[in-house]
Amino acid sequence: MASSSSQITLRVRPEALTDPEALRQAALRQAQRAGVAGPADDDVLRIVRRSWDARKRPVMAQVVVAWGEEASTEDPAWPEVSEDAPSVLIVGAGPAGLFAGLECLMQGLRPILIERGKDVRARRRDLARLNREHVVNPDSNYCFGEGGAGTYSDGKLYTRSKKRGDMKEALAWLVAHGADPDILVDAHPHIETNRLPQVVTAIRETIEARGGQVLFNTRLVDMESSEGRFVA
């Protein structure tokens, strides 16, 4: 198994994940087999990656545990922007639009999001009517509205794509808005159905509180250009 001076991969029973001493002993045994230095007595082990193998009994956890000096991390903080800051028009308040809004704040830009659908709370009423009476609001349904098509899913955060880049910052932003910190280490993370709408709302509230704007029930119907640039 892959290992280094500060981390090692283990395959253990699930109960070992909540037993620090059992996890330490497993790390020491694996380090000895791999011929590398294991954790010292005063090292605190931390799980940096976790997945599950339930193909047969017993269910096993495969984890990467690390020890030693931990890289310093800072909680994300989005600065306030003034109304005079350069503005960026973002079409759609789905995942891409909301994260684009947060990134604009990081760059000192004022995001203005327009969304044809409704906010999470109002959208939920339209979905209830759809399920109860089979009446579809063309602008507020499972596809359109705050958070996009996945707002009422279980919030899966993984893909089979091999070209997805480093997702750590995006996951940290979700945790900052109420997602379970477990998504930072799980190999196949998800936010959970009941929590995801709250996370979506919290992201929008951050954008608004920092000087951005989110306009619901608003469509982009046309664009004008002048001298090769969009002006409206």
List low-pLDDT spans. none
Distance between the termini: 57 Å
By CATH's scheme, which homologous superfamily of the largest domain applies? FAD/NAD(P)-binding domain
Task: Return the string of H and E elements.
Answer: EHEEEHEHHHEEE
Radius of gyration: 23 Å
Specify the CATH architecture of the largest domain. 3-Layer(bba) Sandwich
- The outline comes out as elongated
Spatial ordering of strands, largest sheet:
1-3-2
Q: Report mean pLDDT, rounded to a whole number.
A: 90
**What's the structural domain tally?**
2
Biggest sheet record: 3 strands, antiparallel
Enumerate how many helices there are, as a single number: 5
The CATH topology of the largest domain corresponds to: FAD/NAD(P)-binding domain
What share of residues is helical? 25-40%
- The CATH class label of the largest domain is Alpha Beta
Give the strand content. 15-25%
Secondary structure class reads alpha/beta
Brief write-up:
By secondary structure, the protein is of the alpha/beta class.
